[in-house]
Amino acid sequence: MTAKRTAWIALAFAAVIAGVTSYSHALVVVQAADGRPWWSYGQPALTDLVVLGASSAILDRLRAGGRVPPLPLVSLVAAVGMTMTFNLAVSDPAAVPKWVVNGWTAVAFMAALESALGIARRHKAEPEPADVPAGPPDIQADMVWLLGRHSQRKVAEVTGAPRSRIAKLAAPPRPVTVSLNGDGSHAS
Q1: From the CB of residue 19, how many other CB atoms can be counted at a distance below 10 Å?
Q2: Are residues 69 and 46 in the same domain?
């Protein structure tokens, strides 16, 4: 088993155990604030769902080569903060103000919504798979495209190709002339 797979398995088990524990602690705090209405059994799951959504949005952006998106990061920190609040307050659940417990519902919804919308916005900006040409890449066309947007020197630095080769690629193609009556080298 690879180290990467071991790490993901360990994370999965830790997430399940932490999720069950934080849910049970949050349930005690939520029910101390609001009693036992039917929705009190769903509200404690919000913290873990926000952690899951924000983590997914962050991983999605990082896998695409981007930077950590700020709003999902704030959502993740807020959800972990609420989880810590519920976990620490389980010994004295009445210590958490009711407005914090009740206000968290709206904050959790907005955080989860922003994480989902961020992923949707990024994927909408990407080309559809049908827009990507099938078959092998056209290196010449790609270099022309690249040279149309960057200097020859920069392209040479990035690709490691000699500047003379880059200059040849950047030069406009020479026109092809075809003689309609041949090249005139034969006698009639």
Answers
A1: 17
A2: yes
Residues 104, 82 contacting (CB under 8 angstroms): yes
CA atoms within 13 A of residue 66's CA, in its CB half-sphere: 14
The 10 Å CB-count burial string (b at 16+, else e) for 108-125 is beebbebbeebbeeeeee
Contact residues for 53 (Cβ-Cβ < 8 A; gap 6+): 72, 75, 111, 112, 115, 116
Tell me the per-residue pLDDT of 33-91, one tens digit each, with 9 for 90 and over.
888 888 889 899 999 999 999 999 999 988 888 899 999 999 999 999 999 999 999 99
Please, where are the H alpha helices in the chain?
3-34, 45-63, 70-89, 98-125, 139-147, 152-159, 163-170
Q: Domain residues for 150? A: 139-170
Q: Which amino acid is at 107?
A: V
- Same-domain status, 48 and 126: yes
Question: Are residues 149 and 98 part of one domain?
Answer: no
Residues 110-142 have pLDDT tens digits of 999 999 998 898 888 766 555 555 666 777 777
